[in-house]
Amino acid sequence: MASTAATRxxxxxxxxxxxxxxxxNRRRLPTQAGRPARPVWDRKVPAKTEGGGGGGGGAPPPPPPPxxxxxxxxxxxxxxxMAKRSLFGRGPVGWGMRRMxxxxxxxxxxxxxxxxxxxxxxxxxxxxxxxxxTISRSWLVKPLRxxxxxxxxxxxxxxxxxxxxxxxxxxxxxxxxxxxxxxxxTIRVGEPLTAAAGETAEELTARxxxxxxxxxxxxxxAYPDSPRxxxxxxxxxxxxxxxxxxxxxxxxxxxxxxxxxxxxxx
Length: 266
Hints:
Structural class: alpha/beta
Strand content: 5-15%
Shape: globular
Number of helices: 5
Helix content: 10-25%
CATH class: Alpha Beta
Number of strands: 9
């Protein structure tokens, strides 16, 4: 739903839920100078799904898992976000993450988080996953990990792809932040993806990758704002006149950034 902390853009959030009506938990978007960001919603979620529902978002960076947001609608299906383990440490953020039942993920060994996510699904909750594993500095969808598709197939639930665009202009990696008011943030929700009979996790992951890329393209095409000058083109991808690095260069930067905190994307 994009990564995965701090208001970023098109992230990779996957909301996977168990049976019953697919409903979304209201969440407050991050604020700018004491005022909420201006969201632009594009919602296409069926009112009813068979055997559960799921969702995912992909591309550039978004807000921290609890603040990432979900399309407005009736409660009370809670979203249990899978987020990097460091967010669950000491301090108010860690306390909040634990109290809200979010799921800490060890990037080098995700089996424990996988089992916890499966239990939440069995209880009827929604699980939010960022399958890119980190913020994409290219602002494009990174290659996805197969864990989301594997979990969806095993639990028998669909994946709802979700992409957000614009949040990275408020706060993201490498020191980019802004207190300018009324920066638009677009959130697009795609059609649920259900694994076909005999479909592998790799095949479902490829379909999800395509769905997220299409949603991101649509979000950028319809985005109601543009750079104010050449020095404001950092938030656009390289193939849209921006100064963001190409995907290959961005991947190397992502790996280096994660290594600096003693973690790994491998």
